Here is the input.
Amino acid sequence: MLMEKQALLDGFQKVFHRPGKDIFFSPGRINLIGEHTDYNDGLSMPCAISLGTYGVFAPRDDDKVELYSENIKGEIVSFPVTDRYPIVKDSEQWANYPKGMLAYLRHEGYLIDKGFSLYIYGNLPYGSGLSSSASIEMLMGEVLKDEFNLPVSNIELAKLGQRTENDFLGLRSGIMDQFAVRMGKKDQAVLLNSATLSYQYKSMDDPNYTLVIMSTNKKHSLANSAYNERVKQSQEALHLLQQKLGITSLSDLDFKTFEAYDYLINDAVLIRRVRHVVTENERTREATKAMQVNDMERLGRLINASHVSLAYDYEVSSCELDTLVNTAWQLPGVAGARMIGGGFAGSAIALVKKDQVENLKQQVGEEYRNKVGYDASFFDVEIVDGPRQLN
Here is the structure.
């Protein structure tokens, strides 16, 4: 599924009028289960996927950094390598994702003292909730690590990606997206504990089942959505529970303790938010058990339950996402389906038998068009390794 290298080199040549040197790829991510838990120090189980972001790099002799996105097709964004401030011009704000990585690597003392040109092209569906931002951040991390021989660890790069979004861009996200992209492994899901950053790989190499991405084709923007509101609500509920409980995050709760102390919250909305976090962590634990014995039907039921919790307790689904998921649930060979990512738009996934993939696309696509009024898109993906140089 990788792009032809020559097409990428030709794109670089057309924009910068000189040859590109090295080609890189950084995957996007999906999340099997464990949604809106990472910023609550909980469990998640993401995978790196074969759709992602490509970069073509060439060094410069001066201190000028040049960034160009083939997807945006705007002007070249340029700034001195020492510039550490976010870009404010609307048409260039996409460049804050790679620029933030550069700024924070330099802030941490890594030697990046020469300019360069970087041509970027992504084949992740726009606004799909497949973490194009983390893909770009980890692409930049890989480029800088390789080209400047930086002794930076993979986990530190993931942390700097989260810092870029939190502090450089103002999105209060957890670390799951960057961690999934950076630590991706072929045919493996990553069971991540966001509190400790401990992780395990769980096999997704089942001969009978595959994952299909179902995109709503409705723009998804975490920064402009209620994502930050959900983070704030989680923190409000935590503070209320800490009146009597010695917990540091909502993920410290088990369901029995939550039921015994929900009176401290005494707010219907906040109680629903906490209930999702507590039950989603438990579903993720159960999912690991199902995967250990290759029980895809059980895994699918947990995925279904995750969507119900996200829709009713966390209230981050939408008519478009519900249509995709509810239709998929009715079809033969579909073990499970749910929305993924921040919510409100973006994408869902379906865990489906390989011989039923085309039927899924046809039936879900037809129902979606009839109910929503425009087409959904479907993507077959492989689970792949993390960022790497291609040549």
In short: The chain is about 40% helix and 20% strand. Residues 155 and 197 are 8 Å apart (CA to CA). The chain has a mean pLDDT of 95.
